[in-house]
Amino acid sequence: MENQVTAMPRIGDKAPEFKAVTTQGEINFPGDYKGKWVILFSHPADFTPVCTSEFMTFAHMENEFKALNCQLVGLSVDGLYSHIAWLRTIKEKIEFRGMKDVEVNFPLIEDITMQVATKYGMIMPGESNTKAVRAVFFIDPKGIIRTIVYYPLSLGRNFDELKRVLMGLQTADEFGIALPADWRPGDDVIVPTAGSCGTAKDRMEGKMEGVECKDWFFCLKKLPKEKVMEKILKK
Ligand code: BEZ
Fold this sequence. Notes:
Elements: E1 18-22, E2 25-29, E3 37-42, H1 49-60, H2 62-67, E4 70-76, H3 80-93, E5 108-110, H4 115-119, E6 134-139, E7 145-151, H5 159-175, E8 189-190, H6 200-204, E9 211-215, E10 218-221, H7 225-232
Parallel strand pairs: 3-4, 4-5
Antiparallel strand pairs: 1-2, 3-6, 6-7, 8-10, 9-10
Bound molecules: benzoic acid.
Benzoic acid binds next to helix 1.
């Protein structure tokens, strides 16, 4: 095991396939979710506090992700009965930041053999040999990994950021643009550089309607929030 090198999936790769048992029955990943965005995420362990706060937040936001045509799928290296007992305890006993009676309706994968976690590079031995780190894979409707985010065991994820990443990927795809630092729907967007959108001269001479260039390589345009939401919210 010591010298075993596991190739980790990267942005642009096809999401590795697997079959698994979950709290919502068996799944065939990513095939069962074709046509949807998927957030596949791992947590270190059931019955731990940071993970509990994260699960409650994910469950609380599940409908917001669903509205963006996105399915949540969780994973840890615990077994199915542990998952079921933990989720029941969360619903019956835990209150956090005004959230209570929280039911988790998205699948939570059991991965006691660590096969899936290993395939996805969720085990990082420097952090833990026996637990998955907090990994988040954004997978598009064609089954391609589009963003990967990792957090350590000691830090809970930022859910506004996870939703922003999803909306950003969808917006960039829909409008063929790029998005600047800290972009949120309604903020100006970046017009791709020359070749794909007008010549450098056209851009600098203000010949492209609605496009404002600071220099040939840095051009912005308005993209109203309503236009973004109309495209990315599921009809
Ligand atoms: C937690 O979720 O609280 C946690 C899990 C594993 C290690 C440390 C913290």
